[in-house]
Amino acid sequence: VAAKPSLRHVNSINDLQNAEIEAVFTLADKYLNELADPGSPHKVGRSIDVARGRVLATVFLEPSTRTRLSFESAMHRLGGGVITSADPATASTAKGESLADTVKIVSNYSDVIVLRHPRDGAARHAADYAQVPVINGGDGAHEHPTQTLCDLFTLKREHRRLKGLNVAVQGDLKGSRTIHSFVYALARFKANLMLMPAKGMELPAHVDARLREEFELKVAPKSAYADDASIDALYVTADEPHQLSLIPAIDAEAAGVDANRVDVIYVTRFQKERWTGEAKDYPKVDAKFLEAPKYRKSSVLHPLPRVGELDVAFDDDARAAYFKQASYGVPVRMALIALVLGIDGAPLGRFAGGFREAVEPLYDNPHGEGLGCPNPNCICHDPLERQHTRQRFRHVGGKLRCYYCDSDTTDFVLVDRKAGKQVAADARVAGTRNIVPFADAAAAEAAGYSPAEPSKRQPNAARQ
Ligand code: NCD
């Protein structure tokens, strides 16, 4: 089911290299400078025709205003055409059509697809079946990479840099897909992170672990922000990654981080569609909250929509950047479309290596054989997609990462299907084709796989 290898999909912000993200910003800046509405410098007010004859399809199976309309406006401004399926109730999904079939078909009608879907990992899955590039317009609670491009672009324009910025992320850190893409990007561009979750809405464990383990953020001791009850954790960028990567924690002061200064606060709404029950005590950000000295120069971002957590009375404050942020959706998405299609300047693929290729082993098995993804909202558990998905994991840093939704499984054993026995989880296996992960040794034995042998010299155990 592998998609055409030449296609450049944008499923995660981590599919884009830093240089590619910078290229999006350079082109977005150019569009904004050349095409801005004279009365409104944040708005693209004129069109060009570099995308003439090209068609963008928006397939939105979950509500949206900004993402879909700014993508469509962006394609119109580039001179291209747009087709859309924006109402799940009137799409063939309602008749029981799988996403895999939908994107295969829409590939024949368009040159690029933007997908929004309620399931985590839907964009990765769609990319397996599409014949044109798939851009993730938000998949469940997983990621929203193009929102992150808008967020970073806003920060660059407001602060002229990303490195060393103290960025507070606030609200529903668990359910907000915008936050997940955003924190990865901030870590990669060397910002410091202040985590300010609403109660019980901390970052998902796998996102948090990845920030520390893969993107080398260091945890600052509580003493660095002891007087501030709103901060749950402070993650500091390691300036000298090679030395500091050996130490899990860091002294914020020694690293030159002033925990009493917040350069950016990113507010999010309670993601009610991803939780059951009410948000009790969801924090509210208003002029009073932002009176604290550390917010004196903060720019305030919000992916929007807001539903009461960010006071409208703050809108006229010079620090409010969220309407600019929404407006930048057009030039940023124009740039992304142009680069993905390779129609204005060089395509993204010109960079050495192109998008990041996963090099870690992939275990790929049918449903029902060994372990499944632990995330119940993963696309692989969607009954409509069951025939088109598999139990797929990348073996990364001693964990299994779901190929679709990036959720981690930390406890598992591996078996070699062909040899009929378990193998050490850290064993170097010749190929991955016969490797099946199980939850534990008992589950593997129950499925007929004998325990791993202590020594290679013992005779091969036969399948029981
Ligand atoms: C976000 C989303 O859909 O995740 N909206 C958007 O695209 N700007 C944020 C949200 O819905 O809260």
Our estimate of the beta-strand percent is 15-25%
Mean pLDDT: 90
Give the biggest beta sheet.
Answer: 6 strands, mixed
Give helix % range. 10-25%
Compute the gyration radius: what is it?
Answer: 23 Å
Number of helices: 11
First and last CA, distance: 33 Å
**SSE-based structural type:** alpha/beta
Major beta sheet, strand line-up: 9-10-8-7-11-12
Parts with pLDDT < 50 across at least 5 consecutive residues? 457-464
Secondary-structure element sequence? HEEEHEHEHEHEHEHEEHEEHHEEEEEEEH
* Strand element count: 19
Morphology? globular
Give the ligands present.
N-carbamoyl-L-aspartate
Written description of the protein model:
There is one protein chain. By secondary structure, the chain is α/β, with parallel strands linked by helices. Helix content is 24%, strand content 18%. The protein is built from eleven helices and 19 strands. The strands form five sheets. The chain has a six-stranded mixed β-sheet with strand order 9-10-8-7-11-12. Strands 4-3-5-6 form a four-stranded parallel β-sheet, with helices on both faces. The longest helix is centred in the first third of the chain and has 18 residues, at 18-35. The radius of gyration is 23 Å and the shape is globular. The site of N-carbamoyl-L-aspartate (NCD) has 11 residues, from α2 and α6.
